[in-house]
Each structure stands twice: as structure tokens, then as C-alpha cells.
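Subgroup meeting minutes
Present: P.N., E.W., G.H.
Scribe: E.W.

1. P.N. recapped why we're keeping a running log of single-chain structure predictions: easier to compare across weeks, and new members can see raw inputs and outputs side by side.
2. G.H. added today's entry (113 aa).
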Amino acid sequence: MYVEERMYLLQVGKAPEYFKLYENEGMKVQLRHLPHMVGYYVTEAGMQNLVTHMWAYEDLNQREKCRAAMQADPDWQAYVAKIRPMIMTQETRIHKAAPFFVERLKKMLAAVK
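Output recorded in log:
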């Protein structure tokens, strides 16, 4: 299993607007295309205005297919056009689950279905 970590550094003061747009528009599109939201966070301490979200995939082929379908969705394209001006930087990391954690992650994901 793999977990994709995406981090967006937002312009100062834009987090409330970003979260409102995500909750009302972006999340429903992502959940339509991406299999497992692991978490969605904003920093409390450290670098401010940093939003981090994580998505789990069985493998990298699944990730590629899911993200391609989402990118092709007109609803997603409309949403991204609204949030892009708020984002200063973006970083993406792909994490491979440690062998001892794979089954635990699968159980965690199954519990939220």
C-alpha cells in the first residue's frame, strides 16, 4: 500500500476560504475518484498556513488511474481554478507502507467505509 501526502502552503489569511471551497466543492469530487482519504490537516505549530492531506492506494497504478480520472473531471477543473490562486507552493510525497503496517492500514481504511 502507498500513501500520497500532498502539502499546500496557502497565502496568509486564505485558509478559511480554501477550506470552505474544499468542503463545498472539492471534497465531493475527490471522494468520487480517490479511494481512501487518510486525513486532511492544517498546521497548529510550525510553518503556518500549511495544509496537508493524505490518500491511500493499493498500488501506484491505482493512484495513476484515479488521479487521471479526477483531473479529467470538469467539476475538479472548475474547483482547481478557484483554489490555485490561493496556493503559494505544493509538494507531494509518496510513502510506501512498512511491511508490518500494511494490514493495519487496510483495517483502518475498511473501518471508515
